[in-house]
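Task 17 of the worksheet. Students: predict the tertiary structure of the chain below and write it out as C-alpha cells. Keep your answer in the requested format; marks are given for formatting as well as content.
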Amino acid sequence: MQAPKYYSVNEIAEIFRRDPHTIRDWINHGCPTPHGVIKLQAAKLGKSWTIKDEWLAIFELRVRPDQGRPDLELE
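Model answer:
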C-alpha cells in the first residue's frame, strides 16, 4: 500500500493556478459551485494547512463531477 501524499496550500495553488489565499478560502469558507458551496478538507499542522491527496481528489470530484482534472475557473 502506497503512503498518502500530502500537499501544502502553495502546492494546491500551483496545481489550480490560483492564489494561496483562494485555497485557504476554499478550506475555510468553501468554493462556490452551481450545486452549493464545497469545502476543501484540510488539517492544520501548526500554522500551516495540509491537504491529503484523497481529500483533494474528493474535492475535485465534487466541484467538477462531469470533468476530469481541469483548471478550476470558479471565482
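Marker's comment: Strands lie at 6-8, 31-33, 36-38, 43-45, 48-52. DSSP finds three helices and five strands in the chain.
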